[in-house]
User: What shape does this take?
Amino acid sequence: MPAPTLTFHTLGCRLNQSESDTLATAFSKEGYQIVDNTTAAGVPVTAGVPTADICVINTCSVTESAEAKCRHIIRKTLRKSPNTFIAVTGCYAQVGVSALKKIPGIDLIAGTEYKMMLPSLVKQVEEKGVSKLSEPLVFHTPKIGQDDFSLPLPAHDLFYRHTRPNIKIQDGCDFFCTFCIIPFTRGRERSRKWDDVLLEASLWAAQGYQEIVLTGVNLGEYAAEGRGLADLVEALEAIDSLRRIRISSIEPTTVPLRLYDRMRDGKVCPYLHLPLQSGSNTVLSNMGRRYTREDYIRFVKEAFARVPDLCLGADVMVGFPGEEDVEFDETITLIESLPFAYLHVFPFSERKGTRVTRMNLPKVPSSTIKKRSQYLIDLSKKKRERFYQNAVGKSFDVLFEHRNEVGLFEGLTGNYIRVGVATDENLSGQIRPVRIEKVTDGLAYAVLHGGGLLLSHLPPLPQQINRRNHKKR
Ligand code: SF4
Assistant: This one.
């Protein structure tokens, strides 16, 4: 009998993506054939894709519109594939279980505590010969465990679509920012066991992967057996064949200073995504953030003093209740004064169950939120252009990924500059030195050191290749 096929729709953050990859490993070890029919953004590709026997929808609950998108994807999948067994997990399965139970056609709901058990839960149902259920099986508990954890390790023959594997090292958060639901969807802080992380990184390195990305909800709070993030990074650097370690988003107050030394002298990419949220002390305090505007500026100056070629990115939230023009102006002046390479701009939307809903702060009209967001998006674009322009004439190592729509081979520098080179070689998965020649929005054109074609050998290049900004966390 052919192996049952299984597909994923993953919504939300990089951590969810990482968990879907881990689940894919576990499902494949259970004998399922993983069929990849989602785009990187988690939007189902429906045309011409074979329907899988099982679909796992890994949901996000960060805002109410994220939840609405989950419901939309679930309903769309049910319409397109009425005979597929639908298993829903992720943050929305934790906090939105009653809404999900009302959607006819879902077969299984697994909350946070049961997420990683999904392969064995699905297997048990499947072994009973069940394909669709009249009511969903619900595996859910409001209480989420606080113990450190291990995860299934990657299989050698696993189909894998990324150039840089995400390795989850931490989950949960104890910070309870007033706008954030994550401490309720993912529970309190806990860390992955030390040896488990090292073993997974070694396995990826042994399979030829040159870069890993460490992910978690609150990465800087990693703590295992009395050791922290900087200790872990130093232990990972000792894996010979691993060339790069990238740290995903990290809270400003939690960055260990030793990390900057590893960025400058070691294998850690000079890349720092440091959520800002606001440049106003009033708003930061209402958000329950643990730093002031002045603290943030100090963190950034310290980082650049130690890592000159750093790529600095930030999340900024627009329209938090009580944000008047004067507070928004403070955000602008702070952003203008610091060398950000890009911003992720998030318009505030109220999220039931978060503390801010009980704070009686004046709401910002949606038209104002829209205008302010657009202002920051434009500012982000200018910042990125400046960051890219500064790289012209310099040399970088690039980890190459794929050939793009105009025939250039694309990849990323350690400091997150997207580079394209003209070459006949297949550079996929290789790290090669390049010199950046010129830039347009979102792409730096470069030549390979000691090889590669000159740009003049190419057909005319488009002014701008339509591409997503930097990946969100
Ligand atoms: S630090 Fe704040 S925003 Fe980030 S996950 Fe924790 S509570 Fe949410």
